[in-house]
């Protein structure tokens, strides 16, 4: 049950995961752009990853970014005023372009489109009322020692599916 405080501070626990059994939807900070993920397994299994790479940290304004790489056709971007902006980032580990999309009005990072994953969109999960429990961490070599651990998540040294920390 959402309290008035939760409404403004975003307590994820004020949303039962059953609210998101068909997908999840949210707007950027100013409300200009709505992102909807149509997927019925967002909270029935682990989804997404925490990325510690320098670019994700810059975009997130934080020590980690909560990302979900998901099939393009499952993501709907509703941008009635056409304010979505794209920054073509080539300073990536792969050297391939990552198009970083954000709201041109409020600056909220929303999603990334990586040339190396042409069928996927990487959604920045911070905008949503509740974030699925992630599957793994990427660029775990670049973690800060003070941040603690996120349970027993697989920690890939660099790319997802690659060498794991301590292997
Ligand atoms: Zn906005
Ligand atoms: Zn990253």
From TrEMBL:
Keywords: Lyase, Metal-binding, Zinc. Residues 1-20 are annotated as: Disordered. The keyword Chloroplast does not apply. Residues 21-147 form the CENP-V/GFA domain. InterPro entries: CENP-V/GFA (IPR006913), Mss4-like_sf (IPR011057). One of its GO terms (molecular function) is metal ion binding. It comes from the Eukaryota. Signal peptide: none annotated. Transmembrane segments: none annotated. This is CENP-V/GFA domain-containing protein. The lineage of its organism: Eukaryota, Fungi, Dikarya, Ascomycota, Pezizomycotina.
